[in-house]
Please model this.
Amino acid sequence: MPTATDLRTLIDALALVDHHCHGVVTDELDRDGFEELMTESPFPPPPGTSHFDTPFGLVVRRWCAPLLDLPAHCEPERYLDRRRELGAAEVNRRLLRAAGTELLLVETGYQPQAILEPDELAAAAGAAAAEVVRIEAVMERTLAEAESADAFAAGFGARLAERAASAVGLKTIVAYRGGFAFDPAPPGRAEVVEAAGRWLSRSAPGQLTDPTLLRFGIWTGVELASQRHLPIQLHSGLGDTDLTLHLANPSLLTDLIKRLQPLGVDLTLLHCYPYHREAAYLAAVFPNVYLDVGLALNYTGPSAARVLAETMELAPFTKHLYSSDAFGLAELYHAGALLFRHALTEVLAGWVGQDVCDLDGALRIARLIASENARRLYHLTEASTRDITC
Ligand SMILES: [Zn+2]
Model:
């Protein structure tokens, strides 16, 4: 019979499936470059201060520093000096491996700077990888190459299917492009052609924000998802300043969720904070809704256990997934995994202490959230992932 102390050891040893993450940068980062990647804000901190003065900054100094052979809580300048001394490749390798992830589902639609591709990321992490394709990225490229609005409307479905031929999931960032208060019905072909025509006539199209085209992207994704049993990831809740927070509340997706449920299309609500309780409710009542609090654990740092506990108030244990949502910094991989393990241990040890479950039951819940739910939801078999050994 395992003891309470064993719970931490057992959860620390669980191999994770990170169902939503991105590449990390390979450049050597100076202080500004590192601090820009520590936050979702595109703005600098107040003059004379630092993004290290945040919950995530504390986490880097406490838990990433020892992996670079530094004392816990070391000063930011010393941390960054040591990071440059070791070099980005070695730092990435140490931090990615420390996360203890066996499988990375890498979303490849966001590449504002040079980052590791899924195979390279997997090699650095000593893990396997599979790809998640961002619908809007494919649509922007298709529009840029379209010869006419009609050709775009007729060809986008095939283009998305081709791009996602070996993917295990799709992703939409509609939260960033106007939010979730959109008409949940699929647009008609004439509406799409008209909207595409308007978009193509713009002198500088830029980021896709047309509501009809965004709905067309989602519904084209739904059709593909339904045929190939691909879950669709939706960024929800906190993110960068392109979104208006209350319009990223997943409760606004209720009508869309109801339309997709009979089609058998599963949605995963990513991050969700501060609407993780709303997301947990949706996961509890709709069979096609799953959730994670990935990004929120990194950015709430020392308070991550409270966020996870609030999510676990209502979300079925079978609907909750692990993600780091790491982008840019390998620190986000290590910290995301470590905070998740610490938070999960704290919540489950409390439940064992109250005798609402025994240790075996607690460990079963931990396994579901750490990897088993993602493997079931994404149909992850050996063949669907690229196994990289190094
Ligand atoms: Zn992401």
Notes: The pocket of zinc ion is lined by residues 20, 22, 107, 325 (CB under 6 Å).
